Amino acid sequence: MQFLSFPYLTLGIGALLVGAAVSIRAKSPRVVAIVAGLAALACFLLSSREIGLAGHERLFDPWLPWFDADALDGVPMAFFAALTLLVIVLAPKRDAGGLALSGILLLSAATQTAYSAANLAMLAAGWWLTSLPFVLRMFGGLSGQKISQGFLIASSISLTAAIAVLHHIEIEEISHASNLAFGLIILAVALRKGLFPLHGWMIRAFEHGPLLPLALLFNGHLGALLIARSETTALTLSEKHVLDFLSIVALATALITSTRAFAETKPRRMLGLLCLSQASFILAGIATASAEGIAGGLVHWLVVSAASTGLICIVRVLEVRVSGSADPSSHLGLATKAPRLATFFLVCGLALIGLPGTLGYCAEDLLFHGALGNHPWLGIALPVATAFNAINLLRIFSTLFLGVLPKHVIDIPDALPRERWPLAVIAVFLVVGGIFPSQVLHWREAAAHQIESALGIGH
Amino acid sequence: MSLESLPVILVATPGITFLALSVVWLLGGHLPERVVSRLTKGVYAFLTLVAAVIFWRMWQEDLHAVRVSLGAHWFKVSHYEFPLTILLDRLSLPIVTVTVILAGIVGSFSVSYLHRDPGFYRFFLLLHLFTFGALLVFMADSLDVLIAGWEIVGITSVLLISFFQYRPDPVRNALRVFATYRVADLFMLVAVFLAHHWFNTTSWNGMFTGEWPGHVNNLVGSEAAIVAVLLVFAASGKSAQGPFCGWLVRAMEGPTPSSAVFYGAISVHAGAYLLLRVEPLIHYSAVATGLVIFIGLTTAFLGTLVHRTCADAKTSLAYASQTQLGLIFAEIGFGWTTFAIIHLISHAVLRTLQFLRSPSMLRDYNRVHAAAGGRIDPTGEHYESLLPKKIQLWLYRIALGRGFYDAIVDRFIVVPAVAFARFLGVFDLRMAVKSAPLPPAGETARSSVS
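Output (structure tokens, whole complex):
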């Protein structure tokens, strides 16, 4: 067993938990949350660097050995810590109360626990904990959240049941029990990721729920993590029909949500469908079981996380500035008053749908090529979903930013410095990553090979 | 300076200019009009000079093509790699030269045309991005690189159509054009992926043997025919031909200089360029060849018919462009390559002039008539006059309805698609939910700064 040189994981998760506890009653909760977020980011960056230097070996935390980090989760941990920090900085004042920021830090700590789990029990603990801030209503008592909470809890129960089945099976029953456990795990993933036909709750959460915490919950991508960690579940994921099933579900989600968005007019719902559709590409990439497809899926994970966080934060920032933007009756024309927010929105959106010159293009290029190798119909159908998503992205953009400025919007500020810099960081990552994608691919290549060999269909 | 470095400078310069201007603007800086205009004129003068030097050196050294690899590969995973190679040969060099010259002329024209327009800076940002995308298309050495430029040109075009964003029509039309582009680009994407899948190559070197013209097709079988047909549809989308002929007139909502550079000069010709580049592959398949000719001729017929019933100058020019492009498509289909290139370049130059003069059309009209010593009566001698009166009326009705293209698309594509999207709502969780609390009343403007 190899260990990290310093207990980065314990300290990172601890910093988030301490920040969550302190920020509830702090006079300046945002400052406390930023300090906690920065400390966690530093810890996870250092652990990620150490994993890279150690040749992507699995390294355990020296203080709490049920935490570990490897090629698969090292980068997402650092990335998720950065996203948490960005969300804290970008949150409008009304979303940055002590309790709300505490909830965001708790959610982040829970997700990091799931990432760094060295066994399935810890992963399930993290999985459960991510529901906690929503169940405790730390983000306010918004209507229509009960369904979302129900789905989150159902997915946690499903995962726990799968682990219990795996734990108690005898050798002679392994086939039946592993099939049952596999079914439960797929159900947990489908519930959590909002895969078709269980995607309704996620759209509803986008429409009625607290957007910024939802961005973090959505971008944890714990469902994809669980599938990618298939070797730890000791399931027969290498069987081709299982991968076929996953790719069909991912494809159905991508196509159906992208088509469904044509009938929507509310920016929040359209955004939810767009993010959900693009996020299902991650699972599709992993299910290709080829190095290119998996690498594409893993890079797409980063693209979806960064781009959708940017989009969601901008939509929330606009909602706070302009009344009626949640359900606009006509175009809002906000580009006239907020051109920089419009530009950031466009950059994030175009990266999400894979415009050349952004990281999304490289991710989708790899993903489609990988898909064509093993599942040609998947490789042909996914670009259709991308095309639909691109049209829907422009529909959201035109609703929010183009058209005649309503009379009641006299003057709204463009991106404030507090908003400009985090959004610029996201834009730079997406664009510079797109121009020089080799470095980002290098971060994820080892993880791709690890998953490829775990799935057992290496070339 | 080595000849190999010049194409890189040529393609990178507008991209770097775009990035530099974007960063300055995003970080809160603002360059005055004079600086932007001088920078733009300087950049295009430099690009023209570089193109001329390349032309001269290739001629001096009797080179038919210059192929430059920008590093080993752009990215690589396992056995798959994305090579980044650009090519200047006897097909791309004339078109690249025309591109930088016409884009420079349009940029220079726009300095005074858009003087003190609120979107002045935005226009020039997009012009540089467009030039980068167009040069990438024309200098690509593979379909992979070509598609990158192809999509950049598309998104720039859409953003310029909605340039006057405070008016509803440009916004609506930009969305429609974008939807059409995306559908057409799908054919390109699928063609590229299938070419990789079946033939393990999308580079011109892999697809063809020898240098253009006279290069020989390497791809065979029904798979090659499928790729060829897909590319024909992709090219039709970019050049507003056949099933995609409806977007060009909607694109006229943009400012006149952007109409000139996109729909007169460069962008619409990208489809014809693609066909010229993959000509041996097109001619390998009888279906693809027939499709090119059929699409070209039918679009030319419809375009010339409609163009004469248009009441405004830019719409009329759009249909006239469509007609000429249809003829260029047909010429490529018939294998008249040299003629098609001459037609393409002369059409681009003439149409740019016509678009740029369109705001002064009335003045020009009066000047021509005055110079002729009085009003010149139209001859009325069009091919329609040879037809029976009944058919003339029938054609007139079709022309007035612009081929009923929009009605057909709305009825058979848009309406069913939206109905199907609504049907998919059965999977939504639609339950009675109290509205989420709205921001406090009056929190709309200054008071609601986050």
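Chain A touches chain B through 91 residues (CB under 8 Å).
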